[in-house]
Amino acid sequence: MNGWLLAATVVLGAGVGATLWGVATGPLRRRAVAQNLSSALACPGLLLLAQAYDRPAYVDVALVLALLGPVGTLVFARLLHDELAGDPPRAGGLTWAAAALGATVVLVLCVAAGPSRAMAKLLVIGVLLVAGNVVASRALSGGFTGVRGG
Questions:
Q1: Rounded to the nearest 10 degrees, how much is the dihedral formed by the CA atoms of 59, 65, 70, 71?
Q2: Which end of the chain has fewer surrounding CB within 10 Å, N or C?
Q3: Are 106 and 45 in contact (CB under 8 A)?
Q4: Whole-number pLDDT of residue 145
Q5: d(Cα 71, Cα 88) in Å, to the nearest integer?
Q6: 132, burial (CB in 10 Å: exposed 0-12, middle 13-18, buried 19+)
Q7: pLDDT tens across 70-94, in order?
Q8: What is the 3-state secondary structure (H, E, C) of the chain?
């Protein structure tokens, strides 16, 4: 077992395990936040697995997850707007912690990859991951001011 695999095990085991528990139990606001965080934590885990096993295809899966994970959360935020309006989720700390984890993993992997096309792809994934997570979390917590319908 190398360090990359150990880091991936910690991220996937602790982070995604906790979010799956959050999705399965609790009030609607906790389930919505946990669904958003599951993709924000699974993506860095896939990137670490790609480095651990030397499988570039896992990076492509992480790219798709970084793109579609926040989109799924935005769909849930739109569909559950009425239910979440009375008791909106508050997950500012979790959002920034997940964004920091994603950014840290991407930066470490960029250093390991060196200047190449792989590094450019990792940077795109990092931007999508951090920006998508922040936007989706903001949409869950009540939307953006000045935007009609949330």
A1: 130
A2: N
A3: no
A4: 53
A5: 19
A6: buried
A7: 998 888 888 888 888 777 777 778 8
A8: CCHHHHHHHHHHHHHHHHHHHHHHCCCHHHHHHHHHHHHHHHHHHHHHHHHHHCCCHHHHHHHHHHHHHHHHHHHHHHHCHHHHHHCCCCCHHHHHHHHHHHHHHHHHHHHHHCCCHHHHHHHHHHHHHHHHHHHHHHHHCCCCCCCCCC
- In whole angstroms, give the CA distance from residue 97 to residue 116: 28
Amino acid of residue 107? L
The token pair at 88 is 């909106």
Rounded to an integer, the average pLDDT of 121-125 is 94
The first and second tokens of residue 85, run together, are 């309006």
